[in-house]
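tool=predict chain=A
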Amino acid sequence: IDVLPERPSMDEKSSPKRPPSQVEVFKYCFGGVQRWFLQYNTESFGWFGHTTDVALGLKIWAPCLILGHYLCGPDAPVLRGRRCLELGAGAGVLGVVLASLGADSTVTDIDELCLRATSLNAKLNNLDHECKVLRLEYGEEDAERFEAKHGGKFDFIFGADVLYVDRVAALLFETAERLLAPNGVFFLGVVERHKHITQELRRAASEGGWSWDWPRPIGKELAHLCPAFRGRKPGLPEDPERHLEEKPKLAGMGGALFDFQQQLKSTQAQWKSSGGGSPGEP
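tool=predict ok
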């Protein structure tokens, strides 16, 4: 993926001669603006296959999209001219959105493939001069090196679904503690996949002196992600937002916590069976 990919035309999309690739260019819309991103092809290969062949971070997980929509909405903080850092950026979607909003965007990951994909995605959206793409490992030691080398602290730090093992939680907060400016804000999007990871996340935050502020309900954000929710489709509940609110939730972790990804996967299957396309449009 060292060569900038072309945006697919409708002819290419519908052509039966072109076999799907594990990595494709997909289109998303943030704040009414279309953006293109090179990512893992979950449309053709699903969410949980090929995780040993393709970097996990190249999948665009739901908290990333939810945070992206939030940052383009009326309740978002003023980002223009502010120093913003994305941790564990994967394909760099959130960092590109931050740059498009006028932020001084620094996008980080530890995986070399993800860093290359992020650089391409910034270029694909004509924001390569507004996005710094850098390597950063979680933990105080690398954060100290990063701060000294790249010039100080950040007004906002973002992490979208960056925890998959419990031992990383303390290291994540060490990084944020070191790099967040006084009175800065750390936005963390979380999927409650495993109870012990959520418990460790809460414990690490508490021991680090962090406080959770204004948890957000995610029903409306999630509805915006799925075209199926824009109008009722056969087999979908009459009121999808009410249906989402019936899911079990835990308050206090920056929003309601349940398995976003399973919900999106289920919705995608229902929409396809009703003759629709895909929530992530290739």
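The two ends are 18 Å apart (CA to CA). Residues 249 and 256 are 5 Å apart (CA to CA).
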